[in-house]
Structures
1.
Amino acid sequence: MSPSAVSLTTIFVIVAIGVAIGFLESTERWTWSSGRLAAGASAL
Amino acid sequence: MDLEQWTVGGRGFGSVMFLLMAGEVYTTFAFLGASGWAYSRGGPTLYIMAYLTLAYVVSFFILPQIWEVGRKYGMQTQSDFFSTRYGNKYLAGFVCVVGIASFIPYLQLQITGVGIIVSIASFDGIGRTPAMATAVVLLAAFVFASGVRAVAWVSVLKDILMVFAAVSIGIGIPYIHFGGIGPMFTALAHSRPAHLTMPGATTNLGHTWYISTVLLTSLGFYMWPHAFGAAFTAKSGDTLRRNAVVMPLYTITLAFIFLVGFTAVLVVPGLPNGDLSLLTIVRKSFPPWFLGVIGGAGALTAMVPAAIFILTAATLFAKNLFRPIFAPAMTDDQVAKLARVMVVVLGLISLLLAIYKSATLVGLLLTGYAGVTQFFPGVVLGLYWKRVTMAGVFAGMIAGVATVIFLMLSHRDPLYGWSAGFVALCLNFLIAALASWLTPVIAVPE
């Protein structure tokens, strides 16, 4: 792979992970903000 | 998901979650803009470290009060505060217009940042315009589908990556090129002795500019509608106080970003735009996969805050400007739908400005600050002075905003060395106080 393909692919993967986390959270398949992690956060 | 869930997340964010939301202040401005000014301006850039720290001192005292009145009166936005405190929908509408207008350069900043990242990461193979257009489409889809809760947990990834990126390149790049941070500063002081002092590489950003800009931006930090609105998402006033104590430590991250900009002065001199310096020197110093990691961190650092900005601006338009003034019969559901349409509209406006109007990233942010800081007198006088009147605040704000527009458009910033936004803020305060003495007080909520 060319240097630009390597760097762009890495960027794409990171952004895709970020977008996936956002969509999963919004559909509440992962209920982090209303579930265990949020409960832990509230306790702090 | 109802409007309150979409905008303030049901007021349920505890310490960690709120910290993440508050962390949205670290945008591509901090990532590319701060290094860009360290590269192109030198000493004046250090105002950023000063203002961020002082801003949390201001927030310690005023945010818990804002949260308290927000909870009491069911406020969701900054405009709700003005509407409830001063009882005038036109003042609240004016706050919306200024807030949305100030958001545009901030959004433009994030979109420009993504364009720079993709352009450099592709080794100049992809132009900025297609990269920025793709970013806006992704951004709109992201916000359209979710709201504030979706953005909150992406912040975990974004903040971990940003801290990793800042520390690794802040230490690594001076070490690679000079054998350490100390030797880098020695070389810089020898080669460019004026770069690290005031006015640095500029001719007009001296000590007066530094002090007035630090005051402007630290007082205005929580006047950004999204930052003000973030106070409503907190679980309690104590959450906000704890946040104010902890957040200055997060500011240390920026010091590492400055180190990259200062190193770039010597390693990649002569760049046409300082905002290119961070990624250009990363590309020169590390393998492509690492450039991708830094670029990915930068892209999320642009897109996650941009999602919050665009969400806030769209909600302000629909809920606090359009409904109260043009369509009082609108339901919450219709307001939420209109806000989603505005996400697209604001994204397109920012994209067009990013394509056709160039400015440094820090310059864009300071333009926005000059606008939003004009809310400060109305907020603090409204919280702490019973004698303040709607007419006084409205007159002061109009004078402040008009002064900012005149000075900016006539290229008089700085004005005799003073930040134009700060000059306008002083005038705003003076007129608000004098006009309040001269006009009758109308009964306001406790």
2.
Amino acid sequence: MKFPYSETVLDHFKNPRNVGKMENPDGKAVEGSPACGDMVAVYLKVDDNTREIKDIKFESYGCASNIATGSIVTELAKGKTLEDAKAITWKQAANALGGLPPVKAHCSVLAIEGLRAAILNYEETHGLVTEKVPTTEKTIQDRLRHVMNPATGLDLVRTHKIKKIGFQDGNAVVTIALPVDHLFAAAIRSEVEEKLLPLWMNCSKNTTVSSPRPGPARNFWKKRH
Amino acid sequence: MDNPAGRSIYLDNASSTRLDEAVFEAMTPYFFETYAVATSEFGYSMGIEAKEALEAARSRIASHLGASGEELIFTSGATESSNLALKGVAAAVGKKGNHIIVSAIEDFPVLASARALEKDGFRVTMLRVDPEGFVDPEDLQKAVSSETILVSIQHANPEIGTLQDIAPLARICKENGVLFHTDATHTFRRVPLNMAKTPVDLATLSAHTLHGPKGIGALFVRKNTPLKKMMDGGFQEFDLRAGLENIPGAVGFATAADLVTDQETEALQRMRDRLMDRMLTEIPHTTLNGHRFRRLPQNANITFHFVEGESITLHLDLRGFSVSTGSACFSKSLEASHVILGIGGDHERAHGSIRFSFGRYNTPEDADAVVENVAEIVDRLRAISPLRNSREA
């Protein structure tokens, strides 16, 4: 028999470690979307004093390399401090798995992104992000790279759906080239909110999102200080 | 849980099939005894014998379509046949008009040929299909114009199995003086198609989906159909396709076509029905892709929601089963199935779709074994899927 993956990948695929949902996690994140074909959820329990990952679990909707990477990443991260866990790279995970087909990089990198996002979520929700960094076009664009358009399965930035990112009176305005009545407009909007709003979690309590205007092909997201 | 006797269970017969020993035996003499090039009637004996074998094979295959031998040209397979049909007609009658119509769920040779012609200045209309994969004859009627020269609509979809009712489509074309091509690769000898009754002008056929050899196919070309030769060289195949004739292949193709019986097709359909009925009732959150009854008798295609197809196929592979999926992760292109998207499915439906296709060497036990294994695999994958947990929470 000849399989497309290494023995270690197949082992983690068949018997994924640290798999399942976690009740009341200290940090969590979901990366990817059903549309892009891969989705990873990562849940963390963190020691509030030592900032060590006490427990970690993952869930995967994805192909074999996605499942295997999720599994190995939880093994690599468990017991590490948040700082050390953040430094885990896709290359390290791929090496620990005995190699991954290059074409599968995008399926497997999601687990690393999931881990980092879960750590960030812990930091943002536990007041660890005290530094007030001004939001720039780049910060917004980076986050929008993680929003998929279900119609194509590709992200908004790569598919040139972001018409404009601008700032007006302390509001961030994102214009997306999709009609308001587009099949996936609502889904895309809620994903954009989910990715952008944690940016301003410590700013004030009245972060709001405006409804899109009816009519022309644009949606608006606003944030008020 | 495993498959019976641990043997390999092949359920990807739509991709290709195991050669039948009888086909191999029929081909053998044309490798070792009658290996000469097919010569004219004034050539030497071995060449004349080769020529006779070629023409006999041609007539036998054509007879299964209610056609005559002169209406069949051998090619290297379905891809070449469909390329020749589309590009050959476009080159022959492109001056009369520049409009071509295909359905959105055609197989790649037709779709890619249409796109290539589009680049050369032809206008291509892709007809939408309904959620079960059917072309509405009214849509075709509306799309046909005085500029239309060719319509290509498959007899059956190889992925979701939908059997197109091509007779009304072919008639619309005939009434409007437009040529009609159909890709019959997956229906030939499994679903009746009689060229004496249905006004099809060109049809793509292939041997390897019928337990025949790979590397040989045919294009039915109705008499007087304008077609320009694409492969230049000698005068073979009624001067429509140059190149040394593949005589063992042609003999193998004819033998494979002769070996298919209605009883066998009915047996495949019973296995398929058993698989389809059991999966759809015993496994929750499943969707049948294509029509329940108007489909290829040997094909089932089911989406298992909340899970990704490559994970299912790999688990099955580890247990000895071969199947295929419409998931992007499985394909070389990393693109989700254009067929599932074409019938209005979303990416999740394409990613979780699995095709099971039966052939001569399957047994009813294979159907039961794959049902039980898939049920267990899908259950395991759903247990770790965030998609299910978020949808069902």
